[in-house]
Structures are given as C-alpha cells and as structure tokens.
Request: fold
Amino acid sequence: MAKINTSSKIYLTLVFIVLYAPIFFLIFYSFNSGDSMTNFQSFTLDHYKDVFADSRLVVILLNTVVVALLSALIATIIGTMGAIGIQTMRNRKLRNTVLSLNNILIVSPDVIIGASFLILFTMVGIKLGFTSVLLSHIAFSIPIVVIMVLPKMQEMSNTLIDAALDLGASKKEVLTRVILPYIQPGIFAGFFMALTYSLDDFAVTFFVTGNGFSTLSVEIYSMARAGVSLTVNALSGIVFAVTMLLVLGYYFVTTRKMKGVRK
Amino acid sequence: MQNKRSGSITLVPYYVWIALFVIAPIVLVGYYSLLDLEGNFTLENYKNFLTPVYLKMTLSSFWYAFLITTVCLVVSYPAAFIISRLKNKQLWLMLIIIPSWINLLLKTYAFIGILGQSGPINAFLASIGFEKQQMLFTSASFVFVSVYIFIPFMILPIFNSIDKLSPALLDASRDLGASRLYTLRRVMIPLTMDGIKAGIQAVFIPALSLFMITRLIAGNHVITLGTAIEQQFLVTQNWGMGSTIAVFLIIFMFIIMAFTGEKKKKGASRRGKN
Reply:
C-alpha cells in the first residue's frame, strides 16, 4: 500500500487540474482583447488598465486593503492579549467557557454573523459603512488570532517567567522581553490568518456594509450578477498575484522562524 | 504564573469583545425572532417556520448540504491518502490549500464563464457532436461548484489524521489476511474518524448556509437556509422571520457539532469494550 501506483497519480493529477483550472481560466481571459470568456482573440493588458483607470474600483481596492490591514492589526493585539490572559486563568471551568465562547464565531456560518451584526449595529446606532465593516472584521478575526497564539502560550514553560521574575524583571519586562518574543510566531500566524480572512470575506461584509462603502468581494458579487466582464478577470489576476505573494512571504518567514526556534 | 492581576488586565478588551460580538448578537437574534414586522412580541415567526413551505426548504437545504458533503468526502479521502504517501507531502498539501485562499467570489465567478452557454465545456461538447447544454442555473452546477469550493477544507483534516496513522498498522492488517476493502473499513476509516468528522463539520455547516453561490450559480433553483436568511434580511426586510431561520440554523449547527465533535473519553471507552 505504501507505493503510489499510476492510477493514484492520475487521480491526484485530476484533482489538481480541477482545483487550479478555474483560476487559470480566469486569469488567462483577463488578457483577452475580446469582451467575453470565450474564444481568445489577442493578448492585451487593457482590462488591467481599465481597473486602474476606474477610480471607483481603485477606491474599493484601497478600502479592502485598509480594512484588512487595520482589522488584522487590531484583532492581533486584542487576540494576543486575550490568549495571554486565558493562559493565566486558574479557574478551569471559566477557562473552558471562555474558550467555547471564543470558538462560536469560528464555527458560525457567515450569514448568521452578518445578520446578527447587522441587528447589533442598527440597535447601537452605528452607521453602516467603513466603521461597521471594520468592527465586524475585527470581531471575526479575534478568535482566529487567539487560536493561533494560545498553543504557543501553552508550549511556553512557566519556569521561564519565574526565572525572569527571580532575576528582577518587572511584569512589563516579562511581557515584552520574555512572553512576546516567545509567542511571536503564533502572533505572526494569527495576523496572517486574520488578513486572509478579512480579504476573503464576502457574506459578513455584504450584510453590514452601507450604500457608500464597498469591498472587493461585494463589488465582484454585484459585477458578477450583472454578467461577465473581463474587468473582473483582471481583478482576479491582481488578487491572485497578491495572494501568492502573501502566501510565499508567510511561508518564508514562518519556515525561517521555525528553523530559528529549533536552533 | 504569579502576575494574576496583569493577566486579568489583558483580558479586558477580550471580554468586551465576547460580550459585544459573541453574546449580544446571539441574544439579539433570539430577541428579534420573537418580533413581528411592527415590533410586537409574537410566536408567529416560529409558527411560520413550522409550515410546509419552510420545512420543505429546510429539508432541501439539508439534502444539498448532504450531497455536497458526501461528494467532497468521496473525492477527498483518496486524495488525502495519496498525498500522505508522497515524498514532499507538505508541499503538495500546501498546493491543495492555496486555492482556498483565492477569493471565494472570484472562484465562483470563474464558473459563470466555464459553465456558460459559450464556455469551454459547451465548446468541448459541441466539438464531439453533442448539443449545447444549459449548465448554469441548475442544481447540479450548484453542487459541483460548492464541492469545488469546499474540497480543500475536507482534505486538510483528513490528511492530518491519515498522516498520524502508522502505515505499519495497514501492513499488519494486510499481513493478517484482511482484504484491502476490509482494511479500509475496519482499520483505516475508524482510526481516521476524527479527521473525517472534522471535515464533515467544516463542510456541512457552511453548505447549509451558502447564499452567494446559490444566487450566482443556481439562479433561484436552490434555496438554502442561508439564502432564506439573506432574503428575509436584505430583500423583504423581515428581520423577525430572518432571525427565526437563523435561530434554527444555530440549533442545527450545535446538533451537527455534537455529532461530529471529538468525543475522546467516550471513544476510548468504546474502543475498550470492543
């Protein structure tokens, strides 16, 4: 059973073709000088130029990036503090309750998060738009950060902190010089996951965004409902490139970190 | 850790988050489910949900989620197994995960082009002498696209559990005379059950609540619980009914999680009895 036979190879190849074909199909036609995703006429970059010439689309791209970076940053701060706090909890029952509450937003379907946040923002009186979208993205990213940081906290031996305290470190120094450097890979992974969740989110944003504010996913949805437009293909080319860069960056940073830890 | 007090200070923003964005929304959904359009308390929404119209919709939503999950599982299990036996398995796994990081909307949009009247599949069918098929806006295309979207989420947990499984166990089973099928059924699947369950959980709950794919790919042929909630909240503006459906979706979610959750203690004792 250990050997991989030909039929297994064919099967896996098929899975990979199915997984990647649609993505490359999209990007391929983004270079089509025609105006549909059928017969490729000739190579052009016009659709990419269209994206950057359309100030509305550029604003939406910027919105998406700003929301992703800001929400990931704030969620990482709150989530990391939360994870550190959870680790110091003595009461087991309380700790388990907090952890279950933490996971609710991770397993909840997007529609429910979106709908319930919509009710919340309307009740509190927050205008739907940038603020509501940002708050929602922070909210659904926090539990992911906690999940990424907590294992690092658990891995860290308490003796490290005791040693630091015995050697005269203040509590603040223990936090900034001992705990944070140790859990840094977890924090980094959490930030990255929060970033991708925010960039990828459609459903929650769709519910809590107002008329004046849009992110890429929501915009693609309304464009796609109107029919095929190769501008969307060009957008997908850009998104694909950015995603690849993020993944590669993440991959290199984490593998280097891991090696560092092992040494 | 002695610094108990500083520990609780770091928890303040986190607790605020739990109160505002975890507890309050659930309470609000429950509260709104008891309101009618004028804002009066009523059980009307629940009565409505229990009428054949909504029950049928719920059933069909479950049916589609079941189909999507089953197809995903059948495709993913062998794939995860093969990957676990490859040389650079982590790299291959990474390649499986990468598509899940591409924006969901874009992947769905791709299928509008691929499955469309003049898309490559129809062009291929035409070239081998078939008539053009209407593939977009059918329930089959909905299942296909959903499976496509969810496959990485099914492969990942299954891979993790297969990877932990020692190949020696499979060899032992074969040496002791078990057939391939018997080994799969009695050794491999039970030992990788946690991964299968995690995969089912990761696919079934989102499949119940999809609404974007139903709109873009299935037209109005498929209505899931998610589509119904979106419809009530954003189109008909009946938040009460929308919240009621959401309450049921939350209940279903907990039931599914109870079935697919890791029951380590129980599992161990059951294994002991056998």
Remarks:
- Chain A touches chain B through 85 residues (CB under 8 Å).
